[in-house]
Amino acid sequence: MEPARFARHGAVGAGLRRIFERYFQMQHSDDSRRAPPMPPLDEIGLDNFAPYLMNRIMGRYNASMREELATLGLSTPKMRALAVLAIVDGIQIGQLAVYAVVEQSTLSRALDALCAEGHIRREPDPEDSRATRIFLTEQGRAAFDALWPTMAQSYAQMFRGIPADEHDAFVATLQKILANVRKHDF
User: Fold this and answer.
1) How many CB atoms lie under 10 A from the CB of residue 62?
2) Average pLDDT of 52-74?
3) Which terminus of the chain faces fewer neighbouring Cβ atoms within 10 Å, N or C?
4) Are the C-beta atoms of residues 128 and 73 closer than 8 Å to each other?
5) pLDDT beyond 80 at 26
6) Taking 80 as the threshold, does the pLDDT of residue 178 lie above it?
7) Cβ–Cβ < 8 Å for 66, 58
């Protein structure tokens, strides 16, 4: 957060600025594994709490696509599975659940429906007889291609008025955050 933004929040902003400065100093010290003490949420405020902001943004993004998803006979878990498979085809169900950010039981039901609709096919994993790999079919690719313009439009709307360098820095920061919290190697 830039100093002017902290100033808008008065004493709370000054306290947040000190906390974030300490945090960034700790990131570059030998003791970077310890998190700085955080003030209570009511002092930070929802508008300064990144998880809250990320949830609001994703909730809005998903809501903006619901009508188009319904038109295509898709749900959010189905859309996420198709989107991942459009990029990383032929992965195991467990990996797909992680990439799609969907509970495996919810994903399993979505995959059953996608398979019945002809959007995906399941194949045994040649390297692990207990595992199944999921592949996008031509029909699944067409469904994703029909949805992509809506996804792209929603994405563009989120970043309207944000310069490319800020977009790139934001995405780089998100990638670092994901690396800090992820539980898998991918």
Assistant:
1) 14
2) 93
3) C
4) no
5) no
6) yes
7) no
Closest CA to 183 of 127, 99, 108: 99
Q: What is the pTM of this model?
A: 0.77
Using the predicted structure, report yes or no on whether residue 13 has a pLDDT greater than 80: no
DSSP secondary structure code for residue 183 in this structure: -
Residue 1 pLDDT:
46
- Residue 25 pLDDT grade (very low, low, confident, very high; cuts 50, 70, 90): low
Please name each of the domains of the chain with its CATH number.
1-41 (no CATH), 57-186 (1.10.10.10)
User: Which residue has 């790139």 as its token pair?
Assistant: 168
The answer to whether the beta carbons of residues 112 and 132 sit under 8 Å apart is no
**Tokens of residue 78, six digits:** 């189905």
Instruction: Report the DSSP pairing between strands 91-92 and 120-125.
Output: unpaired
Strands 120-125, 128-136: pairing kind: antiparallel
3-state secondary structure of 122: strand
CA atoms within 13 A on the CB side of 76: 13
Taking the C-alpha atoms of residue 85 and residue 80, their distance in angstroms, rounded to an integer, is: 9
